[in-house]
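As a point of orientation, let us examine one representative protein, giving the amino acid sequence and backbone structure tokens.
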Amino acid sequence: MLVFGPACGFILGSFCTKIYVDAVFIDTSKLDITPDDPRWIGAWWGGFLLCGALLFFSSLPMFGFPQSLPPRPEHAGESEQAMLPDRDYERPKPSNGVLRHALDAESSTTCFQQLRVIPKVTKHLLSNPVFTCIILAACMEIAVVAGFAAFLGKYLEQQFNLTTSSANQLLGMTAIPCACLGIFLGGLLVKKLSLSALGAIRMAMLVNLVSTACYVSFLFLGCDTGPVAGVTVPYGNNSTPTSSLDPYSPCNNNCECQTDSFTPVCGADGVTYLSACFAGCSSTNLSGCSCLSSVPAENATVVPGKCPSPGCEEAFLTFLCVMCVCSMIGAMAQTPSVIILIRTVSPELKSYALGVLFLLLRLLGFIPPPLIFGAGIDSTCLFWSTFCGEQGACALYDNVVYRYLYVSIAIALKSFAFILYTTTWQCLRKNYKRYIKNHEGGLSTIGDVCSHLPNVLSFLKRDEFQMFVCVIL
């Protein structure tokens, strides 16, 4: 269910970015720019206000909850007992996962004593190689999502010349719903196939390999930057660039062009210019552009936007299909990973183990990756805008280097996750019973049956006991 949040967020962001940022204070009918213009800034604040209001009002009913939940009745219903693992329903279980009697409050440990145990318990958990490898693999998988998805909208804008609203809308309507489907299918396969921890890790390895192959295909799906006057090719020439490239040329020296904003235009010569000013256009109807020296003067016109790249639309459709498949398959590894994590720790430490998982996911999976991806993307910038002599945002990227670096970081993280999955598989294959605390699956030996008989018989009523004896005989 958590995945539906980002899906709705992308769609909400797409709606908000179609509204001008200062629409509340100005008359937008007098604006001479549209959402397709690179200078357009959407109402980024709208989603924060709406989601903040929803969070506030949804928190109000929580004040109606009691300070502590009442203990479960001693004779719970059969349906309730059937859903509870082992003997947890016999005694109330507090939030820290330690079983104790409801009336034994005075013998319970203090908060300070519990805090002193945390380092020892954490060391005990992290000393388990299966537990550590699975958590680190989950961090690598989340790092791909956190870093790759954080800049995916920007990536679509740069690679396929999409608008911000279109990119957000496509992400919210395609990739994220496919991820929801993948999570559901992963859980369904684990349940229907009754996978053991060893089978679950094999499934995670297979899913990781397939999704990594999808990421490799992204290296070949994209559009080139194309010829940009003064940045990738010299003025008056769209062939191989020379060593001296400068946005300022004798054809636009008298125009006093500014680099504080990026408003690209496509010339009749098939070359993109940083703005109509840099193209040397002297009239407001974008004609009479003196820098278009390779075309007749009467045809020296430009149109807003970058020049389209051949085959870019087909590459985008292929990219979108592969992205959907990659999102669905990659998300299928989530349930097997959690299954292994739960089965590799003792029952009284499961809740704390999940706490360690979520802590490390946020520390390693959500914080560093966007910084790493962002630094890599900035390194591919070809032209930086300037404002009052200071460097501003990147105005133009090298799309090929951008694509290779952006996708390669994701592939490296996925590969590291595969190595961790393989290490987990080796540990489980060599010593399965050492790492798996509750041995799932059939009981293969008489010794196993005898060791579990007292626990099994304690749950059976008289008629169920007779049936159990018949089955055993």
The first helix runs from residue 4 to 16. The longest strand covers residues 390-397. Residues 251 and 277 are 10 Å apart (CA to CA).
